[in-house]
Design goal:
single chain; 3 helices; elongated; CsbD family protein
């Protein structure tokens, strides 16, 4: 972890960059069935074969979830 440097004049520069808006909630696995299934497929493939790479949604995945492909 990087060392923190204190300012010599006592100002808190962090407050200049932070906003008062609320941060969004985390998405989790609550609704995205298609995304959840594709992510699970990717995790299973990585565990079985040890492959890293990009996993994309296929037409078959979309059809299985009732979406147009």
């Amino acid at each position: 972890m990087a060392e923190r440097k204190r300012s010599n004049d006592g100002t808190k520069e962090t407050e200049k960059f932070l906003s008062e808006t609320e941060t969004p909630d985390q998405g989790g696995r609550a609704v995205g069935d298609l995304q959840k299934d594709v992510g699970t497929q990717d995790a299973m493939r990585r565990a079985a074969k040890g492959e890293d790479g990009v996993t994309r949604v296929t037409g078959e995945d979309k059809r299985n979830h009732g979406e147009p492909s």
